Amino acid sequence: MGLVYADVELINGIDIALAKRHMIGEEEVKRIHVDILVDTGSYMLAINENIKEQLQLPVVEMRKAQTATGQIVECEVVAPVELKFKNRRTSCNAIVLPGDAEPLLGTIPLEDMDVLIHPLRNELIVNPEHPYFAQMKM
User: Fold this and answer.
1) pLDDT tens across 19-74, in order?
2) Which of 17, 52, 82, 126 has its CA 20 to 30 A from that of 31?
3) Is residue 137 in some structural domain?
4) What is the CATH number of the domain that holds 57?
5) Per-residue b/e over 29-51, b at no fewer than 16 CB within 10 Å?
6) Which residues, including other chains, have CB under 8 Å from residue 90's CB and lie 6 or more apart?
């Protein structure tokens, strides 16, 4: 199986809340479409500094993370980020990777959206057992 990418929409969660309270217009909600690497070896959503700046996401904490090369780096964690894929959505924290690093979609948001990697088509799909809504295991 090769690399799997998915087209997702990332949205500033604070902007969504402000728009629901009519404090800003819907057109002011900051959002971006990203072709993201689906990485089942990663736990969190990982974005780069450029995406963080475009969405103007606030830093909520600093966290150390181990990269695929084994290097330990200290990274910002931003929140809330709304992530949409097809008819699924989740709200989560995102770790900010340095520079223009490739964004990664990890297992926590994947599980929350109830999506799977289709091994033959090599693509991210909505769980066919629950095509109309996400269902979680408790």
Assistant:
1) 999 999 999 999 999 999 999 999 999 999 999 999 999 999 999 998 878 999 99
2) 126
3) no
4) 2.40.70.10
5) beeeebebbbbeebebbbbbeeb
6) 82, 83, 109, 112, 113
